[in-house]
């Protein structure tokens, strides 16, 4: 009888620990970020007369995942499971561009990859870099992407515009996921504005 009481005393902390792990998780859930910026919309006097479809972008490794990526000198690459984007860069970027181009005056209508509405013009892209670059104590958001605008009404399909953008943000606090998300948001806003200006210039010419 005394022995059974001692066993109960040993088991109580074990059960308590098990219940506590269900109520209070041993590790915190990931923190998710989205691109957050106010688009700058320019006017284009020679707008396109055809609708535009924005496709999901392809991506090079390691940017096919949602985890934030950190690049360091010497080719060192690290991933974060604790801090992530709400979607992969190949989805985040075209969704942001679709919103910005819908609000702009460049196209009569803009649809996404899953929309069945007809759109002869197609915008596609490939993400080469979407990361936090760290050199010593300095961190910057880095974006390298190639974008193509194609007219599918013509045979063969005509490439209207193709350009690569390689951009860096200003420096921000090291080891801060929130600062990185803010810097990348500003960089994407700058990229979106530059892309609209370049497409407008092509149309005018």
Describe the structure.
The chain is α/β, with parallel strands linked by helices and 205 residues long. It has one domain (29-204): Rossmann fold, CATH 3.40.50.10610. Helices cover 32% and strands 33% of the residues. The chain has 3 helices and 9 strands, in the order H-E-E-E-E-E-H-E-E-E-E-H. It has helices at residues 2-23, 89-103, 177-204; strands spanning 31-33, 52-54, 58-59, 67-72, 76-85, 110-112, 121-135, 138-151, 158-168. Strands 1, 2, 3, 4, 5, 6, 7, 8 and 9 form a 9-stranded mixed beta sheet that branches. The longest helix has 28 residues, at 177-204. The radius of gyration is 24 Å and the shape is elongated. The chain starts with a helix and ends with a helix. Residues 1-26 have low confidence and may be disordered.
Question: H/E series, N to C?
Answer: HEEEEEHEEEEH
Question: If helices are DSSP runs of H or I spanning 4 or more residues, what is the number of helices?
Answer: 3
Poorly predicted runs are 1-26
What profile does the largest beta sheet have?
9 strands, mixed
What distance separates the N and C termini?
Answer: 95 Å
Oligomer: single chain
Q: Evaluate the radius of gyration.
A: 24 Å
Shape: elongated
CATH class: Alpha Beta
Number of separate strands:
9
| CATH level-four homologous superfamily name | ABC-type transport auxiliary lipoprotein component
Number of discrete domains: 1
- What portion of residues is helical? 25-40%
């Amino acid at each position: 009888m005394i022995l059974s009481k001692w066993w109960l005393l040993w088991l109580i902390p074990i059960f308590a620990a098990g219940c506590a792990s269900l109520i209070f998780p041993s590790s915190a859930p990931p923190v998710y970020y989205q691109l957050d910026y106010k688009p700058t919309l320019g006017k284009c006097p020679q707008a396109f007369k055809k609708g535009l479809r924005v496709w999901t972008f392809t991506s090079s490794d390691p940017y096919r995942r949602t985890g934030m990526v950190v690049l360091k000198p010497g080719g060192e690459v690290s991933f974060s499971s604790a801090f992530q984007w709400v979607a992969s860069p190949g989805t985040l970027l075209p969704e942001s561009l679709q919103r910005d181009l819908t609000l702009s005056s460049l196209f009569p209508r803009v649809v996404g990859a899953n929309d069945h509405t007809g759109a002869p013009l197609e915008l596609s892209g490939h993400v080469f870099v979407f990361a936090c670059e760290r050199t010593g104590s300095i961190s910057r958001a880095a974006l390298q992407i190639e974008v193509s605008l194609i007219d599918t009404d013509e045979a063969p399909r005509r490439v209207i515009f193709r350009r690569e953008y390689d951009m860096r943000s200003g420096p921000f606090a090291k080891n801060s996921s929130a600062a990185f998300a803010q810097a990348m948001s500003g960089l994407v806003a700058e990229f979106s504005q530059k892309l609209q200006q370049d497409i407008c210039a092509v149309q005018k010419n």
